[in-house]
Every structure is written in C-alpha cells, then in structure tokens.
C-alpha cells in the first residue's frame, strides 16, 4: 500500500497522523515518541486504512473534519478490515468500532503541538472530509491521499473540489511533501512536478468527459474513447482511471447513476456482496 503514518513532535508533545494499519505497527509508532506526550491523533479522512489507529490509543483526542461522520462507512470498514486480519492471522477480541472524533472543524483549525502550529485545512476532492496538515515554519505539507508518486488522483468525491484543492496547494510554499501513500520528498522540483501533473490529469479528465457527455456518448463509449492515460504511476492506474471516468461522467450529466459507478460501485461490490 506504500502507506505513510507520521508524527509531529515538539517540546515534549506529539501529534500522530493516520497512525498505522496493523496493530503492531500502530503500537510501535506510539512507543517511538522518545518520551513525548501523545496529545492528539489527526485522521486525514475516513477511508478504512486511515481510521485504524485510535482503537489502540484509547485515551488520545481524535481530530477530523466535520464531514468525517457522514462519509465514514463503519460496516464497510469492518468487512475490509476483517479480510485483512484474516490474511494476517490476527485474532480480534471484539468487533472493530470505527473512531468518532472528539474535535472537528469546517474550513480550518490551528492545532498547537509544543512550539509548532499545525494548520489543518479542509481539502475535499478525493473524499468529502479529507484534510491536509501544513506546518508553516518548515513549509511541510502532509497531503493525505494526494500528490503521490505511486498512484494517480482518485476522484471519489468531486472533481471540482479536487481541482480547487490542488489550485490552492499550487500557490503555497512547500519544502517537504508527505503523501498518504508513496514517497515523501523535499525535492522542490519533484513537488512542483507532482502538483502540475495531477492538475493536468484532472484537466484532461474533465475536458474529455465533458466532450463525451456533450456528444451523447454512453458510459462504455466514453471509457473506451479516453482509456489511454497521460499519467502513469503504478499497475493500478488503468483501473483507477476508469473509475474516475465513470464518476465524472455521471456527475457531469452522463446517462449513469452516480451510486452505481466509479469508486462507489467498487466499494459496494467489495463490502456488500
């Protein structure tokens, strides 16, 4: 999964970000704080792989975006987690209860961690509830499920929101970039390249699907016409690209039910069938 969990540490205080997937990973992260007090866990969004940490950190305050509660799918998370635990031979003593946040925000929240001021900002597009974390002194951006070097943008929520989020980030000083999946980097050229490529991909996605809907093409015709990728990062890009086309086709007025296409379709097939 090329999954990243992280921690901000300053003046004896610590804030964990999306801490881990497997129990031993989460416990090792919590134990490796060099004596800092763990005060907060930030969940960048409600996808199943980002909400597993707080179960193992029961006394820690959880922060998330206001939309987290509406986008979280507890039943689906339990199904996917159950399959993962079965493959890893993990025995569960009690059913998984996805965490609910102790503190939420709408547009932004300044979170103090020791001498650091972390700026949590709503960053919708991939999901409705996704947030980023920006530390201005070091110009560090925790980008959640964006700006990866191993996956193309996945539009689960809204293309327009995703475009606006990337436009905002494009105008910001970023000296260190940490995506939720993939390699972190402090190469300024690489950071700008990822932003530029992702913006270009979304622009091409919008343009192609808009033309197809205007021409009255069916969903299958649209997928076939725009199957070629101008951006490639992993073996899963082609499948993700198709999901993006399906989602945007329905949202832009194509003849498709939004609840039956794109990531919604795949998630429901994986968790309800």
What does this structure look like?
It is globular, with a radius of gyration of 19 Å. Helix 3 (74-88) packs across helix 8, helix 4 runs antiparallel to helix 5 (188-214) and helix 5 (188-214) packs across helix 7 (237-251). The chain has a domain at 6-145: Metallo-beta-lactamase, Chain A. 37% of the residues lie in helices and 18% in strands. The protein has eight helices and ten strands.
Element layout with pairings:
Layout: E1 6-10, E2 13-17, H1 23-31, E3 37-42, E4 61-65, H2 68-71, H3 74-88, E5 103-105, E6 108-113, E7 116-122, E8 131-135, E9 140-142, H4 159-170, E10 176-178, H5 188-214, H6 219-225, H7 237-251, H8 262-272
Parallel strand pairs: 2-3, 3-4, 4-5, 9-10
Antiparallel strand pairs: 1-2, 6-7, 7-8, 8-9
What is shown here, in short?
By secondary structure, the protein is α/β, with parallel strands linked by helices. It has eight helices and ten strands. Strand 7 (116-122) and strand 8 form a beta hairpin.
């Amino acid at each position: 999964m090329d999954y990243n969990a992280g921690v901000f540490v300053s003046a004896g205080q610590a804030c964990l970000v999306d801490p881990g997937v497997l129990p031993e990973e989460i416990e090792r992260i919590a134990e490796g704080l060099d004596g800092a007090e763990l005060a907060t866990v930030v969940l960048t969004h409600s996808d199943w792989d980002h909400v597993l940490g707080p179960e193992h950190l029961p006394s820690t305050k959880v922060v998330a975006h206001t939309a987290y509660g509406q986008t979280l799918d507890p039943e689906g998370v339990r199904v996917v987690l159950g399959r993962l635990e079965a493959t890893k031979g993990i025995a569960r003593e009690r059913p998984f209860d996805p965490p609910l946040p102790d503190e939420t925000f709408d547009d932004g929240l300044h979170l103090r961690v020791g001498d650091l001021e972390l700026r949590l900002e709503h960053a919708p597009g991939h999901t409705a509830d996704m947030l980023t974390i920006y530390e201005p002194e070091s110009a560090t951006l925790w980008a959640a499920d964006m700006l990866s070097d191993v996956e193309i943008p996945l539009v689960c929520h809204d293309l327009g929101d995703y475009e606006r989020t990337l436009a905002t980030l494009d105008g910001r000083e970023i000296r260190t970039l940490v995506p939720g999946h993939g390699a972190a980097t402090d190469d300024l050229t690489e950071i700008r390249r990822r932003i530029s490529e992702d913006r270009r991909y979304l622009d091409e996605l919008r343009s192609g699907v808009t033309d197809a809907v205007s021409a009255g093409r069916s969903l299958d015709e649209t997928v076939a016409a725009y199957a070629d990728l101008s951006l490639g990062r992993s073996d899963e890009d082609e499948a993700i690209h198709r999901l993006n086309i399906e989602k945007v086709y329905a949202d832009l007025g194509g003849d498709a039910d939004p609840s039956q296409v794109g990531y919604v379709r795949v998630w429901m097939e994986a968790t309800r069938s």
